[in-house]
Each structure stands twice: as structure tokens, then as C-alpha cells.
Specification:
Strand 7 (208-214), helix 10 and strand 8 form a beta-alpha-beta unit. With 451 residues, this protein is of the alpha/beta class. It has a seven-stranded mixed beta sheet with strand order 4-10-9-8-7-5-6, with helices on both faces. It has a four-stranded antiparallel beta sheet with strand order 11-12-15-14, with helices on one face. The model has no long low-confidence stretch (mean pLDDT 96). The protein has 17 helices and 15 strands. Helices cover 38% and strands 12% of the residues. Helix 1 crosses helix 15 (351-372) and helix 4 (74-90) packs antiparallel against helix 14 (333-349). The chain has two domains: 2-68 and 351-449, Alpha-Beta Complex (Aspartate Aminotransferase, domain 1), CATH 3.90.1150; 80-346, 3-Layer(aba) Sandwich (Aspartate Aminotransferase, domain 2), CATH 3.40.640. It binds pyridoxal-5'-phosphate. Pyridoxal-5'-phosphate binds next to helix 6 and helix 7. Belongs to the kynureninase family.
């Protein structure tokens, strides 16, 4: 919130000005990006329309759920049509012909994807979905021994991460009850300090094979100190991987410089590529440059093989350079097209660093409103207040009233946010398409919903 208050001072704005949100929007040089997106309308999402809203059915909703599913970019709609036309026109010849030949559809976006996570282009690729990628990456990098076999995750990790790590342990004959270490916050706390994470890593030290944490925690919105934790994980002798579902496109990442071993992320949250769309993968060049198939026993599929060998069974498997060599199947062209169009929108906006600068002020403003303009005392923010420890999302713990009841009321007044059972509402103003007015209006409607 400090950054937001400094911003107000810097621009000589009055915090008590009734028109502050509009003035902040006028200062926002990314406000034009909003028109790049399709917004749902109240009439399409409300479960009931009351008298007050009868003439507002065509109004765009206030969408605060980019942390779950990002809005549809108009470019995505456009580019998918181009893909369908190419497929219609060229059929199998489309692998080599057309606007974006199918054969290299994913290689075409590597550098754009790399800029989202702070990587070299060859360190990233798009493939499969997130949970599948976590399995593939762990199958490649979780090589337990008798002495070093534990996997570390955060307590309250996303269910899929829990299932992935539990099943990986079981597949290798280990016991998730004892061998899956879940780092738990202190009593009555929701978030972890970096020191608590370090202490756990040191406590289990040389028995840890893999550390797999979320970059931004889905429930609390906490952004972990990836650089420090990766360093300590390495000092313990472990491989350190990250689930970046809630971090990619949300916060600034430097996966290469932070020396992360591997990571994966979905592209349908802050990256706005559409539900279930193709996921991203990062593998550090330090690993791929020294990769030896004979000793590392990579999970192989034809698309991990070099193009010149791919169709020749008599030739050996020669892994594609970098992350591409971890592909098994050919990528979905529809998915990759949607992702490419979304990444173009990021580029048009000036990239993650520009968006992140707006995000700090926008979420800072939301925090200011939550702290100063909420009538109810039954809402507690559980996301860290320090902007370096969060992205766009703020998670709100609700007491006395059911979170789902509030969500429902908000929906019918034209606000989409989401609930994580039993009692947390998550709101995430996405800097690509949310405005300061969205935050201001949200607080007014939240106050009404809490009455
Ligand atoms: C943190 C996190 N991990 C994993 C997943 C699972 O993603 P997928 O269904 O694409 O495998 C999600 C989905 O929302 C998530 O938020």
C-alpha cells in the first residue's frame, strides 16, 4: 500500500477526492489495453436481475478473476479464425504452409514465452497441461535414492500438486505420509516466511530430492522468494522446481538468473489463453546443455527428437535443443495459436515489467480501499501487504457471512470474483484489463453485499 500512497503524493492527488479512481485511470498509460478484451455482460452471468439492474443487462461486468481464468483477448478470437482458415485451406500441407506453419507453431513463440518468465528462449516451450508437465518434469528430475528421496511442497498446495507429488513418491516405493514434507504456516497464520521455508529445507537437508513450491500461492496470493529458496534448496543438494500457475504473467520472474531447475505454468490465468490451454515449461540451460540421454533416461516422445531424426526410426533419438527436447507429442495448434495471440497482447502492453509496475499501484489501491472504505469488520486480508510478496491477487477471509453468499450477491450486481471454500474470496485486478474504477466500484458493491 506504501507504493500506492507514494504514487498519490508523487502525482499530487488527494486521497479523499471522490473522483480519485477516475483520476488514477486517466494517469494509467495502460488503460487502452482494456479494449483488447471481451468482457462478459451482466445479463449473461447474473442468476437473477433485480429492478435496480434491469436496464444494466448490457453492461460489462467488473471482472476480478484473472487469477482463475483470464478474459478472452480479441486477438485470440481473430487468430483462431486464421488458424481454422489455414487448416481448411491447406489441410496436412498446413504443417509447412500458411500464415503460421503447424510444424513450428510452438517454436515461433519461444522468445515471447521466455520474456514472461525471465528465461532464454531455448529454456522454455509450450506443451500439454500443467499437472501433466509436473509429472513429466518430476519423472525426469525426481531420481530418489535410499538416502535422498523426500519431496517438499507447501502445506495447502493446490490439490493437483499434492496428487502429483504423492503419486510420484508412491511410484518410487516411498510413503507420502512420511516422505512428503508440507511446510505449514504457524498457528493462526496463513502465509509462510522465507525463513520458515529455509528452516524446513535445512532440517530435512540431504534427505530432500526435490523441492516443488508455488511461485504465487493460489489460496493466499503469496509470492515466494524464488531466488533465495532455490539457492537454499541447491545448498541442500536438492532439485528445485516451481509451479508458476499464479505467477506467470502476474509477477516479474527471472527463472534463468535465479537458477531455477525446472518450472511449469498454465496459460489460462494471467496469460489469458483460454480454459485448459497449453502450458509452459522451463528447464534451465545448465541442465539441458549437459544432458546425456544414456545416463539421464529422459521420457521420450517423437516431438522431443530433432526434426531431422523425427521421422527416421533408424536414426537415434537426438533431443531437440533445450526445453523442446522434453516434448513428447506434437503441440495443439489451436492452443498454441491462442497462446501466441495472448503473448502478443503482453508485448503490445510493454511486457511484464510494465504491467507489474501498474499492478503494484492497482493492487495497492485495492488494499487501501479494503483497509479504509469497508464498512464491515468481518473481512480480513490474508495476502501479504508487501508488494514484493504478492502479485495482483488479494485473498479475503470472510467471517459471519458465507463467502459464497457474498460471491453470489456480487455476481448479481455485476462483479465476478471467486471463492475458495470455505471462507476465502479471491480478487485479482489484472493490470491488462482492470481499472482503478473497477476497484472503487467493487468496494462499493462489496459493502452492499455485506449488509
Ligand atoms: C497452482 C495450480 N497448480 C496446478 C493447477 C492445475 O492445472 P491443470 O489443470 O492445467 O493441470 C492449477 C489450476 O488452476 C493451479 O492453480
Amino acid at each position: 500500500m506504501e507504493n500506492f500512497l507514494n504514487y498519490i503524493k508523487q502525482h499530487d492527488l488527494d486521497i479523499n477526492d471522490e473522483t480519485l479512481a477516475e483520476k488514477l485511470d486517466a494517469l494509467d498509460d495502460l488503460s487502452h489495453m482494456r479494449k483488447e478484451f471481451n468482457f462478459p455482460q451482466l445479463g449473461d452471468i447474473a442468476t437473477e436481475i433485480n429492478d435496480e439492474n434491469r436496464d444494466k443487462v448490457d453492461q460489462e461486468v467488473i471482472y476480478l478473476t484473472g487469477n482463475s481464468l483470464g478474459l478472452q483477448g480479441k486477438a485470440v478470437e481473430r487468430e483462431l479464425k486464421v488458424y481454422l482458415d489455414d487448416w481448411k485451406k491447406y489441410a496436412v500441407e498446413g504443417h509447412m504452409k500458411g500464415t503460421h506453419p503447424f510444424i513450428s507453431i510452438d517454436e515461433e513463440i519461444q522468445s515471447r514465452l521466455a520474456s514472461i518468465v525471465g528465461a532464454k528462449p531455448s529454456e522454455v516451450c509450450s506443451m500439454n497441461s500443467l499437472s501433466v508437465n509436473l509429472h513429466i518434469l518430476l519423472s525426469n528430475f525426481y531420481k530418489p535414492t535410499k538416502d535422498r528421496y523426500k519431496i517438499v511442497i507447501e502445506y495447502g498446495a493446490f490439490p493437483s500438486d499434492l496428487y502429483v507429488t504423492e503419486s510420484q513418491l508412491r511410484n518410487h516405493g516411498f510413503n507420502p505420509e512420511t516422505d512428503l514434507i508440507k511446510i505449514k504456516p504457524k498457528e493462526n497464520e496463513y502465509t509462510l516466511t522465507t525463513q520458515e521455508i529455509i528452516d524446513t529445507l535445512k532440517e530435512h537437508g540431504d534427505s530432500i530430492a526435490v523441492v516443488l513450491l508455488s511461485g504465487v500461492q493460489y489460496f493466499t496470493g503469496q509470492f515466494f522468494d524464488i531466488k533465495t529458496i532455490t539457492k537454499v534448496g541447491h545448498e541442500c543438494g536438492a532439485i528445485v522446481g516451481w509451479d508458476l500457475a499464479h505467477a506467470a504473467g502476474n509477477v516479474q520472474l527471472q527463472l534463468h538468473d535465479w537458477d531455477v531447475d525446472f518450472a511449469s505454468w498454465c496459460s489460462y490465468k494471467y496469460l489469458n489463453s483460454g480454459p485448459g490451454c497449453i502450458a509452459g515449461v522451463f528447464v534451465h540451460s545448465r541442465i539441458t546443455e549437459t544432458f546425456d540421454l544414456a545416463t539421464d533416461n529422459r521420457l521420450m516422445g517423437w516431438f522431443g527428437n530433432k526434426l531431422s531424426h523425427r521421422f527416421h526410426k533408424e536414426k537415434p533419438f537426438v533431443a531437440e535443443t533445450g526445453a523442446l527436447g522434453f516434448r513428447c507429442s506434437n503441440p495443439s495448434v489451436a492452443d498454441t495459436t491462442a497462446l501466441r495471440a495472448s503473448l502478443d497482447i503482453f508485448e503490445k502492453a510493454g511486457g511484464v515489467s510494465k504491467l507489474s509496475a501498474k499492478s503494484v499501484i492497482l493492487t495497492g489501491y485495492l488494499e487501501y480501499l479494503l483497509r479504509n472504505k469497508l464498512a464491515s469488520t468481518n473481512i480480513q486480508m490474508i495476502t501479504p501487504t508487501d508488494p514484493s510478496q504478492r502479485g495482483a491477487q488479494i485473498s479475503l477471509l470472510v467471517r459471519e457471512i458465507k463467502a459464497n453468499e457474498i460471491k453470489h450477491k456480487l455476481l448479481n450486481s455485476g462483479v465476478i470474483c471467486d471463492v475458495r471454500e470455505p471462507d476465502v474470496i479471491r480478487v485479482a485486478p489484472a493490470p491488462l484489463y482492470n481499472s482503478f474504477t473497477d476497484c472503487h466500484r467493487f468496494i462499493q458493491l462489496l459493502n452492499k453485499a455485506m449488509m
